[in-house]
User: Fold this.
Amino acid sequence: MALKCLDTYALVEISEANPHFSAYLQEDIVVPDLILAEFYALLLRRFGKQTAQYWQRKIEPYAKSVALPILIEAMEFREGHRKENISFFDAVGYTYSLKNNCLFVTGDREFKNLKNVEFRK
Assistant:
């Protein structure tokens, strides 16, 4: 079983108890720290600090720091895919996945046909 890198889309689905995503917490997963920060901000806006902190504690054991060279490469990837309007966070998550031999788990259609992507809706 390959290591899987979850994006914010996947984390939202997990937090909403979507059975198609909840099982990922039983697999070998990683969450780039910037993705966790984006997820935290989204929960903070929608539900408040208590819920955001709950999910931060739950996901933090899977969090990994993203090195500057990966961030730079992610910005190059984003620029190269400007027409798809890929977010900063998604570019970082996808590039992190490629550099660390992970499958990038997302439901974002911009990634549907890219390599190393496990696309889920």
About this structure: DSSP finds six helices and five strands in the chain.
